């Protein structure tokens, strides 16, 4: 039988989690982990819950950054006026997760720690240059979201480490967009997700990033392609050129949501749509 622990402080939670690397697992909202347990995919000897750690919950505007506690639910992020004003693409991605029951319980920290290749928020957070605050038995450190997921459902977190929050840089001159395509039911994970960010000086591109998710083990960022476009216009021709280049550059997986060829086509379409939104 699985033991269930609810520590009252972060230090104890990290210690309990590190006590048995093979048998102890962290649980936050549990929307993914409980399902995997029911299907027999994982069988932890101990579940270490962080649900009592209220310091890991909330959204704070801290100068030029936005801090989001790891226990903050997708619904809280999607409904936050600050998030919709400053980081609308992240609010949009969180609003797209699963269904309302999952969004009401599932947390941003759990979403990142699961490292699901087809999750919506990580794609956006990679494009936002977000950083995870991580605490473990050996102390605290920061990990770029772009470096967190290393393969399918695998992260760079060390033994006993817990994501405590996500810090996102803010720039009022940046424009954001998130586009996703679902090939099956409306509540399914995306076949392709595209996050775009741009900062323009008139017609000229000063800053541009495009990240494609759900097509590979980790979100794919194409700085070589977007970097070549800097200084030029983000007009219809430029958007089409970037979209086609990214569609050609990706090496998509194949699964029940779509073939590699199909994903490559959808990627080009969604990149063009996202770039249209950030070029306004």
List keywords for this structure.
Enolase-like, domain 1; four-stranded antiparallel sheet; 3 domains; five-stranded antiparallel sheet; alpha+beta; 280 residues; Uridine Diphospho-n-acetylenolpyruvylglucosamine Reductase, domain 3; Uridine Diphospho-n-acetylenolpyruvylglucosamine Reductase, domain 2
Task: Explain the overall architecture.
The chain has 280 residues and is an alpha+beta fold. It has three domains: 3-49, Uridine Diphospho-n-acetylenolpyruvylglucosamine Reductase, domain 2, CATH 3.30.43; 54-169, Uridine Diphospho-n-acetylenolpyruvylglucosamine Reductase, domain 3, CATH 3.30.465.10; 175-278, Enolase-like, domain 1. Helices cover 35% and strands 26% of the residues. It contains twelve helices and 14 strands. A hairpin with a 2-residue loop joins strand 8 and strand 9. Helix 11 runs antiparallel to helix 12. The mean pLDDT is 95.
């Amino acid at each position: 039988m699985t033991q269930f622990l609810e520590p009252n402080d972060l230090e104890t939670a990290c210690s309990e989690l590190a006590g048995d690397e093979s048998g102890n697992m962290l649980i936050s909202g549990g929307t993914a982990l409980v399902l995997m347990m029911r299907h027999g995919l994982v069988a932890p000897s101990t579940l270490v819950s962080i649900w009592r750690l209220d310091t890991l919950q909330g959204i704070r505007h801290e100068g030029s950054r936005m801090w989001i506690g790891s226990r903050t639910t997708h619904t809280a992020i999607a409904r936050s006026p600050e998030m919709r004003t400053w980081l609308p693409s992240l609010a949009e991605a969180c609003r797209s997760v699963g269904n309302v029951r999952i969004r009401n319980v599932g947390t941003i920290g759990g979403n990142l720690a699961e490292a699901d290749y087809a999750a919506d928020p990580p794609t956006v957070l990679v494009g936002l240059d977000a950083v995870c605050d991580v605490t473990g038995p050996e102390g605290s450190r920061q990990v770029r979201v772009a470096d967190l997921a290393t393969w399918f459902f695998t992260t760079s977190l060390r033994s006993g480490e817990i994501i405590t929050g996500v810090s996102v840089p803010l720039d009022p001159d940046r424009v954001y967009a998130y586009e996703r395509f679902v090939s099956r039911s409306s509540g399914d994970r995306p076949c392709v997700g595209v996050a775009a960010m741009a900062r323009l000086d008139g017609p000229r591109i000063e800053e541009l990033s495009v990240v494609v998710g759900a097509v590979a083990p980790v979100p794919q960022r194409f700085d070589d392609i977007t970097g070549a476009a800097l200084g030029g216009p983000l007009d219809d021709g430029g958007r089409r050129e970037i979209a086609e280049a990214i569609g050609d550059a990706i090496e998509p997986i194949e699964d029940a949501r779509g073939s590699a060829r199909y994903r490559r086509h959808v990627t080009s379409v969604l990149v063009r749509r996202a770039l249209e939104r950030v070029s306004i």
